[in-house]
Structure formats: structure tokens, C-alpha cells
Amino acid sequence: MLKRHLIVHGTVQGVGFRQFTVTEAKKAGVNGWVRNRMEGTVEIKAEGSQEQVNAFIEAVRAGHRFASVTDVDISTADNVEHKGSFTVLY
């Protein structure tokens, strides 16, 4: 399983971006979580096959019509806490 930690920069809070990531994760078959960070970025941890995670990351980079993704920092995650799904953390 591929495990990735993402920090998404741009206009990604207050525009439905977290729900968008939940939808895209389900489409790709990725497990993990998403949450807003205090400085205005969105943090994601995702786990799945290489194909699933890569498809999910491409969707995150593209964003949706109300978001404006300017950069995505991607690193390897040691652990992705999930219960067999992809959820929003508050």
C-alpha cells in the first residue's frame, strides 16, 4: 500500500474542498482523512494502491471550480489512520 501525506495550498478553505476530497477519494478507492489547518492549507493523509493514490493526487491538484490549488506538498506517510474509509477530521 502506498501512503502519502499532502498539504494543499491555495484557496482551499471555505469552498467545499474537504467534501470534494472525500468524493474523489471514494471514486479512487483511497482511504484516509482530510482536515483544515490553521494557516489556511488543507492536510490530507491517503492510502491505497499506487494507481489509486496517483489518481486521487491528480484530482486534488486539479481541485474543483470553486477552489484554486496553487501547490501540493507531497511526502511519504509512515501511518495513515483510517477505519477503511476516507473522512473529514475536525
TrEMBL record:
It catalyses: an acyl phosphate + H2O = a carboxylate + phosphate + H(+). Signal peptide: none annotated. InterPro entries: Acylphosphatase (IPR020456), Acylphosphatase-like_dom (IPR001792), Acylphosphatase-like_dom_sf (IPR036046), Acylphosphatase_CS (IPR017968). Keywords: Hydrolase. It comes from the Bacteria. It is an enzyme of class 3 (hydrolase). One of its GO terms (molecular function) is acylphosphatase activity. Gene3D superfamilies: 3.30.70.100. The active site is at residues 18, 36. The keyword DNA-binding does not apply. Its EC number is 3.6.1.7. Residues 3-90 form the Acylphosphatase-like domain. Belongs to the acylphosphatase family. This is Acylphosphatase. The lineage of its organism: Bacteria, Bacillati, Bacillota, Bacilli, Bacillales.
